[in-house]
Amino acid sequence: YLYRPLRETSVERLVEIAEKTRENTGFSKIFLSADAIADYSRIDELISSLQQRGFNIELASSRIESITKESLKQLKQSGGQLISINPESIDRIRKSINKDIPENLIQNVVEYAFELGLNLRISFMLGFSNETEADIIELAEYIKSIVKTKNSINEDLSIKVKISLFVPKPQTSLQWDAYDLDLMESKVDLFMDQFDDMDLQFL
């Protein structure tokens, strides 16, 4: 399966499915979901086609590297109100887990979204084995900087922060990392203590 050609459903077929679903349900809101929806090679064309047919579109969490200003514009024009991204952690931790997303790329996507009037749901993970207290505090400050960016552009927009906890998974480079529940709880407490003076919604 790993070596088979990439197979994608055509835009025409996806639009046809959307049209039939609307006929059967009466709903014009559509949620585009996949492991990495923005990796679909014709995502801009798909959004545009659905928009032209009167659909309101929401996107699942997207790979930051695949998000374009054009796709965000089309999302907004189609009635979308929210973008979800998953930077995972601060730059040092991202590099250690081979998720080397440039900081300026994340910043650009966030600013584009706010400028277009899109709310933001942003996901991070706590508890990596190489994570220090300084890293946790840096992550909190990073989130605060995103809130500051939002307020400088449009204070009326919302930010929802999703925090998940690292669990070692088999068949990954981190599969033998220890999981210490007491240490994990202390990391969460340290992280949340950084937001005592902020009214921020966590998921």
Describe, in plain words, how this protein is organized in 3D.
The protein is an alpha/beta fold. It contains 7 helices and 6 strands. Helix 7 links the parallel strand 5 and strand 6. The chain is globular. Helices cover 43% and strands 16% of the residues. The model has no long low-confidence stretch (mean pLDDT 90).
Set down the secondary structure blueprint.
Layout: H1 11-25, E1 29-32, H2 43-52, E2 56-59, H3 69-77, E3 82-88, H4 91-96, H5 103-115, E4 119-126, H6 133-153, E5 159-165, H7 181-193, E6 201-202
Parallel strand pairs: 1-2, 3-4, 4-5, 5-6
Number of strands: 6
The shape, in one word, is globular
Counting helices, strands and paired strands, the structural category is alpha/beta
What is the number of helices?
7
Unreliable parts: none
- The overall pLDDT, averaged over residues, is 90
Strand order of the largest sheet: 3-4-5-6
Task: State the gist of this model.
The protein has 203 residues and is α/β, with parallel strands linked by helices.
Characteristic terms for this protein:
203 residues; single chain; alpha/beta; 43% helix; two-stranded parallel ribbon; 4-stranded parallel beta sheet; globular; 7 helices
